[in-house]
Amino acid sequence: MTDRGDKAAASCKVSELPFERLGEALERERAQQFVGREPELGLFDRMLAASPPFRVLLLHGPGGIGKSTLLDAMRRQARSRGLAVVQLDGRDLPGDRHSLERAFRGAIESASITPGDPAALLVDNFESLATVERWFRETLLADLPGRFRVVLAMRQQPETQWQLDAGWSRLARVHRLEDLAPDTADFLLDRLGVPVDARPGIRELVGGHPLALTLAGQLQRDDPQGDLSLIDSPQLVSELAERHLADAPSSDARRALYACALSRRLTRPLLAAMLAREDVDELFDWLRRQSFVRETVPGLVAHDLVADALCARLEHRDPESHRRLIRRGMRYLLAGVDEHGEAAITEVLYLMRGLPAIRRTFVVGRDTGWHTDRLREGDADILAGLVEGEWGPHARQWFETWVVEAPEWLAVLRDRMGRPLGMSFFLDAEAIDRELAAADPAVRAFRDHVRQHAPIRRGERAMLARFLLARADGESLPAGIAQLQCHNAFMPVSVKGLAISGSVRPDNEVNRTQAHYSGIRPLADTEFSQDGQPFFIMGHDWRVEPFADWIDGVIERLVMRGEPASRERQAEIMRREEFDAAVRYMLEAMSKGEPLDRIELARSLMVQRARSMGPKQGAGEILFELVWRAIGELQEHKRGAHLVAVLHHTYIDPQPKQRAAAHEAGLAYGTYRRRLREATAALTDRLWQWERAASRPDSG
Q: Do 698 and 586 meet the contact criterion of CB atoms below 8 Å apart?
């Protein structure tokens, strides 16, 4: 057949294809790739019966174990049985009860469920609703019609109350998702196109973890001759993160991967802001196709394991780019604080988790199970004991007074079991009893400061955190206090008319130092003593510096300040495995023709030594010359000509494809791959010898 005939036949075939939406094709592909989980689907099938043995199924398991894909399979199963399905993601639901109830009931109503017909409610990432889990169970779930079957998927084991409560224990079933069985894992690898002889090695390497199996299978499929020599799943994920970066089509695509890893939800506008460019549609669509990126309504979400590996890699190897991406993302998100309030701050805090000062202080992006809640029966005695233990008996007396007189702004920090860990107890300074306010040394000092230095006007509020403390955990700043500070950070955008806020703190170096980074300064004339312990009040006038401006200053102090000099030195002295990884990254950069000035090896000791002994050159230039020299010395090897040739055509004068490099080196492709591994190992050894020599005190 002629070319024209071939084209006509192809056109005819295309025109005969039935109309199919892209989403339908995507669903079909997902269904074909789904394997295993027969016990869980069997449990769900029993739930769908007319008289089910239970009506709520609580699935839990670690990240990457397949909860989301299982919920998708359950959705398909329910629809095949004629059930209407409501599918929600806990990460997309608001955290406060009023907004959550509105969003929840709105989703149910918008599903167009015929009255009387059975229906399924599937909620993914339910751990995101930990702060309101009990209320969600007793209010929203309890109010659902009996025809609903509910599946809640989460990372942590559900609250014990699900199994202890006389009613819920009969209606709910808790089930842990385990790794895939060997035969199911083998079936998954078969679906991924992994050869039979390669499957045992992958299963031995990663076990039955579905995400690790998928990524390892992709790695083997993309590089059949490569060695999977890693010893556990976290290292594999790190290596696969490197491989995804290496396979990225451009430097902008790699930066987009980093932006996705840093963000809680990556939207197109946020990506544009972080990359400082407008045309991000192509990059965003490329991100959507990555195996470890999941698309949700609010934006793209990178899997936690891969995201953590990418973030750690960027911070370690290019700290300036790490800070730049965070800074741009924060500025964009903070522009929406007035409109989105606490939701925008949540996104900002997640971005900030990568900053060393924040990471040392705040618990962000980690599911501790802690949450803030209102005061409950039995809490007051526990909290009073905490106050006395930390601040003394007179402080306890004032807590017991205020918890009776003005408990409205008391937020209790609880662990996953609901036990009180600490509290943030605010008082509306102008609304409380005047005689009590005058007698309490902390409230009196705050009110005096407000009157003398920052008088409030009609409709404005002055709020004092009279008690901000948590159970000590051995850290310089207890992590519980940091969690409460996150809670309090929302007040300027959530409390109407807030003009000035203050917080009572023990007068010590930790609290004084924190003021440097937070911008919440010590208020004048607020020092006082109680039970022999000195205190002072930190505070901020939100009329002088509004919330968005204040947190912009926090960005400058935390993001722009850079790292201490000692950290730079520590980064330069690498262990052998770190050095080997840095060499691999350098060679990837060379193969793409990228500059070497900002990579990790450019800060190595051997580069520093060469720079101090020769003419003034950039670190990247010196590194390239060292690599060139090391490759030249490989001529002494018994296969030196081949080793030099494969390195030259792969990295020094790189060819677009490895097969082209093999051709230029005069080698068969299989031989080229073996020689390339051998040459890379020899080159790494030679560079490591120079690095070791440069680390000796007498190396000058």
A: no
Residue partners of 668: CB distance under 8 A and separation at least 6:
662
**Burial of 103 from C-beta contacts in 10 A (0-12 / 13-18 / 19+):** middle
CA angle 466, 469, 471 (to 5 degrees): 155
How many other β-carbons are positioned within 10 Å of the β-carbon of residue 484? Answer: 26
Q: For tokens 């009613």, what's the residue? A: 167
Cα–chain center distance at 6 = 50
pLDDT digits (tens, 9 = 90+) for 497-553: 999 999 999 988 777 766 666 778 899 899 999 999 999 999 999 988 887 678 767
User: Residue 87 half-sphere exposure, CB side, CA atoms within 13 Å?
Assistant: 17
Residue 521, number of CB atoms within 10 A of its CB: 12
Q: Residue 506: helix, strand or coil by DSSP?
A: strand
Q: How far is the C-alpha of 580 from the C-alpha of 602, rounded, in Å? A: 14
Residue type, 360: R
Euclidean distance between the first and final Cα of the chain, in Å? 74
Instruction: Report how far residue 589's alpha carbon sits from residue 651's, in angstroms, rounded to the nearest whole number.
Output: 9
DSSP 18: P
Q: What phi and psi, each to the nearest 5 degrees, are found at residue 154?
A: -150, 165
Is residue 494 very low, low, confident or very high in pLDDT (cuts 50, 70, 90)? confident
Q: Are strands 148-154 and 56-60 parallel, antiparallel or unpaired?
A: parallel
Cβ-contact 478, 455 below 8 angstroms: no
Element at 647 (helix H, strand E): helix 640-647
Dihedral of CA 481/483/489/493: which sign? negative
Q: What is the pTM of this model?
A: 0.49
What is the token pair recorded at 664? 């230029």
Q: 197 is written with which tokens? A: 């002889």
What is residue 376's three-state secondary structure? coil
- If DSSP codes are grouped into helix, strand and coil, which group holds residue 294? strand
Q: In the chain, what's the furthest Cα-to-Cα distance?
A: 100
Beta carbons of 352 and 364 less than 8 angstroms apart? yes
- Provide the 3-class DSSP secondary structure of residue 517: helix
Please state, in angstroms and as integers, the Cα–Cα distance from residue 25 to each residue in 11, 284, 375, 650, 662, following that order. 20, 20, 51, 39, 39
Compute the distance between CA of residue 547 and CA of residue 334 in angstroms, rounded to an integer: 9
Q: Note whether 648 and 631 are within 8 A (CB).
A: yes
DSSP class of residue 586 equals H
| Other beta carbons within 10 Å of 282 | 13
Q: For residues 213 and 221, what is the distance between their CA atoms, to the nearest angstrom?
A: 12
Two structure tokens written together for 326:
């965070």
For the record, the structure tokens of 602 come out as 């450019």
Question: Residue 161 has which token pair?
Answer: 């109350």
Model pLDDT for residues 359-409, shown as the tens digit of each residue: 655 555 544 556 678 899 999 999 999 999 999 999 999 999 999 999 999
Q: Are 251 and 283 in contact (CB under 8 A)?
A: no
Half-sphere exposure of 406 (CA within 13 A, CB side): 22
Strand partners, 540: 501
**pLDDT, tens only, 254-298:** 999 999 999 988 999 999 999 988 899 999 999 987 767 888 878
Q: What is d(CA 444, CA 432) in angstroms, rounded to the nearest whole number?
A: 12
The residues, ordered by sequence, that sit 6+ positions from 626 with a Cβ below 8 Å of its Cβ are 606, 607, 610, 687, 690
Order of strands across the sheet with 172-176? 84-89, 119-124, 148-154, 56-60, 172-176
- Cross-strand pairs, 530: 533
Rounded to 5 degrees, φ, ψ at 299 are 165, -170
Residue 371 bridge partners (DSSP) = 414
Beta pairing partners, 57: 151, 173
Question: How big is the chain, counted in residues?
Answer: 700
